[in-house]
């Protein structure tokens, strides 16, 4: 994960290589130059008890990779299978585009970008589940 730039709001927290870092009183910008650093914005974190839907499940596994709790190699098959299953359910053009972006990012080892693409699907999934529930 080289070349990542984090823009942090005042008081925002981020997990970097297992350490929780909290931003000060002003907005800041941090460039991460260390390749393969494990980084997760805590505002984006999904807690285990919140893993209740297919998109959240895939996002959670990506989050485990980003936090360093699971290796990319160990998660790769599960992530690709999860994205494939999502593509069978989310058939509109925009969802397919986002799933394609997530797949490309995953195959390129860009796990943060994959998570970013998939998180965009969370509101859509919530609307679909509410409509069918």
Feature tags:
133 residues; alpha+beta; 2 domains; 3-stranded antiparallel beta sheet; two-stranded antiparallel ribbon; 5 strands; globular
What's the short story on this structure?
Strand 2 and strand 3 form a beta hairpin. The chain is built from five helices and five strands. It is an alpha+beta fold and 133 residues long.
SSE blueprint and pairings:
Blueprint: E1 4-8, E2 13-16, E3 19-22, E4 28-32, E5 39-41, H1 54-67, H2 72-89, H3 93-107, H4 111-119, H5 122-132
Antiparallel strand pairs: 1-4, 2-3, 2-5
Describe this structure in words.
With 133 residues, this protein is an alpha+beta fold. The protein folds into two domains: 4-43, no CATH class; 46-132. Helix content is 50%, strand content 16%. The chain has helices at 54-67, 72-89, 93-107, 111-119, 122-132, and strands at residues 4-8, 13-16, 19-22, 28-32, 39-41. The strands form two sheets. Strands 3-2-5 form a three-stranded antiparallel sheet. A hairpin with a 2-residue loop joins strand 2 and strand 3 (19-22). Helix 1 runs antiparallel to helix 4 and helix 2 runs antiparallel to helix 3. It starts with a strand and ends with a helix. The model has no long low-confidence stretch (mean pLDDT 93).
